[in-house]
Design brief:
Two copies of one chain form a homodimer. Chain A has helices at 19-26, 30-37, 45-58, 64-71, 93-106, 120-129, 146-154, 177-190, 206-220, 238-249, 263-275, 312-327, and strands spanning 76-82, 110-116, 135-139, 158-161, 171-175, 196-200, 231-233, 257-260, 285-290, 306-309, 336-339, 342-344. Chain A is an alpha/beta fold. Chain A folds into three domains: 4-62, Orthogonal Bundle (434 Repressor (Amino-terminal Domain)), CATH 1.10.260.40; 76-175 and 313-339, Rossmann fold, CATH 3.40.50; 177-310, Response regulator (Rossmann fold, 3-Layer(aba) Sandwich). The radius of gyration of chain A is 27 Å and the shape is elongated. Chains A and B meet through helix 4, helix 5, strand 2 and helix 6 of A and helix 4, helix 5, strand 2 and helix 6 of B. Chain A binds a DNA duplex through helix 2 and helix 4.
Chain lengths: 356, 356
DNA sequence: GTGTATTGTGCAAGCGCTTGCATGATAAGG
DNA sequence: CCTTATCATGCAAGCGCTTGCACAATACAC
């Protein structure tokens, strides 16, 4: 009887490394091997060790498909996203992805990337009905997002990166946008600014709406109303930040402060201000929210930019961990986590000019 | 007998959407359904239509695991990469990933992301023996890369992004680094430059070695020898470009031209030159290779940078397409493709100062 | 009308694993 | 020494699909 355990070393004999041959080689049944490998109770320590040693030597790894078929699990999670988000230069998506990758690796899961061009729903349906993943992550919820209902109907575990309005419960991880923007607005108000322009994101996203509301709340809390047209709903890019700032600086009563949704936009604002010969922190103030995107830190602008800081990568990790917990039954249905932020004061905010 | 084909519409009844129930509902055997769905010959058009309609109505999609187990295929390819490449800000990896994603989506395959921390070999082994993918993509080959032999031994189809020395045949897609660098060097030589500093990548990678050799070849072709210490083997970042340029500008006989491996490095060089009050294209020349990384184009520097241009995203697409062809038997074993480049002349290269 | 193709469909055996239940062996209890 | 609990292991039935082969029905030839 060939003892696979003895043939370790240089040779790779994956070809025959299935349960059956292992069983044959060890003189045990497939069930025993399987249980030993999974550390099921009832298998004596000695046997287990023997099995594990043999498996290792043979380079045995259970066939994922067969295992999946038998268990109904794939130990794979899916990340569903618009293909475009990998193509645009200015995005925090890669950071989220990095976080997810880290968590998935740590938990020994696989990550299936499911980009879509325009029909996200059908990708989700396919993932669900073909049972290629145990759960999915979806991102950037709209203000009212139909995916929640769909995924619930499909009974596919999922975690959303971001919140949304929905009848039904769902799990999400989100930045504390509301409080971050209220805090930033408060700060600017404290410094005497009233003519603040918010360079926000596109209106269809929930987080954008939340930020707008937070901005208004901060004003309202002091019995003030934000100036009309204070909030600009534009994309999250340097170019847009630049254009918007340039345009608003031409206002009859130009803003004394800009509040940006991302460091990308803030960069553009800085460029516009420089072009106008305005010194940030002295002539005009800028603050923003900083997701901690790689290579685009509020700290690296000059002057360094006052911002609410969070780690979008950390969010990615959190999301994946929660999804896996959900899948493994280690957590119950709606896990809702709002990540804290930290306000980091730097030199980009100063007192509003008295005359302004 | 319930006719699933009639119950189309709002209801989602994925729960029972397996072959067996479909067969039952249609009064056909599972084999027939399976064959009809896969357009096997011998199934009359009429039956096929009926089956497809019913399947669609029922939201049926074959269970990927079961199908995989039966066919030995998963229609999934793996991308194996150091987790780190998703964490660093300056990388062309995301662009490659975008290209791969595009191709994979177009060919209706899935993409499994397999990051590793340090032990790539064991990830590859696992992928192979657990049969979770039909093939893998590996990147950035070393000068002599053990992965080739490993993957061949594992009999896992694979395509390498980049070339390497190897006894055995293997498939790859690579930029034409050799000729691009020879061409760039030629250009600088034409302009009279001799004291050129090459800011290359880290020496362990094959493409770095190829570029160094190309540089020397261009000199040799004119019976010249490059100045000693001409080639700097450093990382591909702005910071490194800056530091290296600063250092070399302090040479007793400072370079009259810099040749950079990436736009990232070139940016750093520009910064260093500006700091020295040198005008690019007049006082000193710079050229580089431009992979077309999102958000980091040679065109956007000022002055715009003369460069050999390729599309790293296109390379990603190509790689995935070739791997899929290989898997599907549409291509035979070693497919080796070297992507062309285009030399784009801009304003960053001028004549070497006579006295220099 | 018989013989042979051709056509449409089904049977059943896997694919490689997990797992409920059964079984034989050993240990413990009286 | 027999009974019962405990332990270590195996049997066999799936999981949901694909596919080689067989078969019945129909079409065609003569």
């Amino acid at each position: 009887m060939p003892n696979l355990a003895m043939t370790k070393g240089k040779r790779l004999h994956q070809d025959t490394a299935d349960l059956k041959s292992l069983a044959l080689a060890l003189g045990l049944s497939q069930s025993t091997i399987s249980r030993a490998l999974r550390a099921h109770p009832g298998i004596p320590e000695a046997t287990r060790r023997r099995v594990i040693a043999a498996a290792e030597a043979a380079g045995y790894r259970p066939n994922a498909r067969a295992r999946g078929l038998a268990t109904g699990r794939t130990e794979t999670i899916g990340l569903v996203f618009p293909l475009q988000r990998l193509q645009l230069p200015e995005t925090n998506f890669v950071d989220v992805l990095a976080g997810i990758s880290t968590a998935v690796t740590a938990r020994n899961y696989n990550l299936l990337l499911s980009p879509f061009e325009d029909d996200e729903a059908s990708v989700l349906r396919k993932l669900a009905s073909s049972k290629s993943v145990d759960g999915v992550i979806i991102t950037r919820p709209l203000v009212r997002d139909p995916r929640i209902a769909l995924l619930n109907a499909l009974r596919l575990p999922f975690v959303v990166h971001g919140r949304t309005e929905a009848q039904e419960p769902f799990s999400f991880v989100d930045t504390d946008n509301d409080n971050a923007f209220e805090r930033l607005t408060d700060l600017l108000l404290d410094y005497g600014h009233r003519r603040i322009v918010v360079i926000n994101g596109l209106a269809q996203f929930r987080y954008v709406a939340a930020r707008a509301a937070a901005f208004e709340r901060a004003f309202a809390a002091r019995g003030l109303a934000p100036p009309p047209g204070a909030i600009e709903f534009v994309s999250m890019t340097e170019a847009t930040g630049y254009e918007t700032a340039m345009r608003r600086l031409g206002d009859p009563a130009p803003p004394t402060a800009f509040l940006c949704g991302s460091v990308f936009q803030a960069r553009g604002v800085y460029r516009a201000l420089a072009q106008h010969g305005l010194v940030v922190g002295r002539d005009i103030s800028v603050a923003c929210h900083d997701d901690g995107v790689r290579g685009c830190s509020a700290m690296d602008l000059s002057p360094p930019l006052t911002a609410t800081a969070t780690s979008i990568r950390g969010a990615g990790e959190e999301i994946a961990l929660i999804l896996i917990d959900l899948i493994e039954g280690k957590a119950a249905a709606p896990v809702q986590k709002i990540l804290p932020f930290e306000l980091v004061l730097r030199n980009s905010v100063g007192l509003a000019k008295p005359g302004a």
